[in-house]
Amino acid sequence: PCCRLRGIRERMEAKAEQGGPDFELVCGLCEASGFSMPDMSVHTIPTSTSVVVLDAAEAFAGLTVQERSYAHGLSLADWGGATICLLQTSPESVPIFTLLQLVFSAQPVVDLIEAAKTKSGLTQEEVDQATMYAAAFYGNIGNYKSFG
């Protein structure tokens, strides 16, 4: 990792004068020695990632009563296990999950998105970012991107 000892203040002042960001992740000494920060793009999810609805109603209707009961039991176990995964991911995952559940159960998603744009004044980009965050959170069962 970067030693963060030399050249940070000078580089921050130079960046500020040039209109750049007011922080530096790598000091001049470490950068000169060939050190570079890891590619952080693997930890983010682009807002252009598609989100699709999984409609299992037709498949569920084709099940026998016993199979429906089994599927229902599995879904209950899945949600119970999800809580454990949330707790293991991070301390803040459970309250985030609770908030998202409240937000998305209050009204249909289409209405929620429309209200976010018209009543709250959010831009389409901000709505896309919030939607992608929620989708990624649910997909990863927590606020960290899963790699497995």
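[next item in queue]
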Amino acid sequence: KADIEAMAANPKPGAVAGCPGCKQGGSMPAAPEGAAPAAAAPAAAAPAPAPAAAAPAAAAPADGSFAYGKYDGQLWDHAAKKDVYSAWDPNSPRTTQNFNPFETFGGNSPDASGIYPGENRYKDPIRGDVNYAQMMEEKADIEAMTASPKPGEAPGCAGCKN
């Protein structure tokens, strides 16, 4: 009880009912009788700058539900990525069914639904084992795709994240 009375007599600056760090509907403990009121809290510091706008997430189906990608819950290997890439239309809006699986965003690759780490609904993909020879074959495939992009594939196109 003494601890609660001490907190009420000397609250932290800015600790008032409804402050951002307080529970909604919560209140500060009442000061014990005879305690001197605490000094007024100093003026609030300038608000922090607004964070950079987050990249838009993959579009949801028209009925409002969410549909994960074709390979959600399945092996997300190079063959699966090539299959998704072959179906990708850069001129159509980016969705969980229409995205470039080889496009990186912030240094990250998308999951099997085109969602990047840190975004809502991201799932760690199921990855297969690879060896150095496979990695070199995949690198050659990706370089060939980069050398001959699909019609309409350019930064900022409807089907791209970047």
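[queue empty]
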